[in-house]
Write a structure and sequence with these properties.
The chain has 196 residues and is an alpha/beta fold. 33% of the residues lie in helices and 31% in strands. A 7-stranded mixed β-sheet has the order 5-4-3-6-7-9-8, with helices on both faces. Strands 1-2 form a two-stranded antiparallel sheet.
């Protein structure tokens, strides 16, 4: 038996909420099917609490979803800019709409499979909330691509489920030659590497 049409109509409506992230109030519109559509997830929140952003950073947010990380960086890096990328066209659409909604003209989103479609752009800051369900090989390719797109001195922050923290430490040391655990929470760990 089909669902009540009123329930379906409500489910098709955009989700809208306001969050204060790193002291900046941001308005988000999202939809079902995107990651954590009703609120900022615990991992993203932990990452943002411990992320250091310079006013002139040129940043990339990988796997941006509807844009909470990238737009927070854009609000803090008023003299810089943020490229948000995702392989989901719905996420890219919402990230761009949320950039407009928050008057963050220094942020834009585009479709890309990791960094495959961004050309030769270079960044001072790279940030991602890593998916837990992918292969180690995929992580290594991803980290190598980030290394190649960072300027010397560029920082790469990740948040992962804490079960992956030892793998991240090993992989960062192999690819970047360094690793720093920024914060280990109950469920998530924030780590950073710097391109020397």
């Amino acid at each position: 038996m089909p669902l009540d049409p009123d329930i379906i109509r409500k489910l098709r409506q955009e989700i809208s909420f306001i969050e204060t992230l790193k002291g900046r109030q941001l308005h988000f519109r999202t939809t079902w099917g995107l990651f954590s559509p009703k609120a900022i997830d615990e991992g993203t929140r932990l990452l943002l609490e411990h992320l250091e952003v310079e006013p002139d950073d040129r940043a990339i947010d990988l796997g941006c979803g509807y844009g909470p990380i990238g737009l927070t960086i854009a609000a803090l890096a008023s003299q810089g800019n943020v490229l948000m990328v995702d392989k989901d066209f719905v996420a890219v659409e919402y990230a761009n709409r949320n950039a407009e909604l928050n008057h963050l003209h220094n942020a834009k989103a585009m479709l890309s499979d990791g960094l495959k479609h961004i050309g030769k752009k270079k960044f001072t800051l790279a940030v991602t909330n890593l998916p837990a369900k992918t292969s180690n090989e995929h992580y290594y390719l991803f980290f190598q691509d980030i290394y190649e797109h960072l300027e010397p001195g560029g920082r790469f922050y990740v948040v992962v489920i804490s079960g992956l923290r030892n793998f991240i430490k090993r992989a960062f040391n192999e690819v970047f030659g360094n690793h720093k655990k920024i914060k280990q929470g109950k469920s998530y760990t924030v780590a950073m590497a710097v391109k020397k």
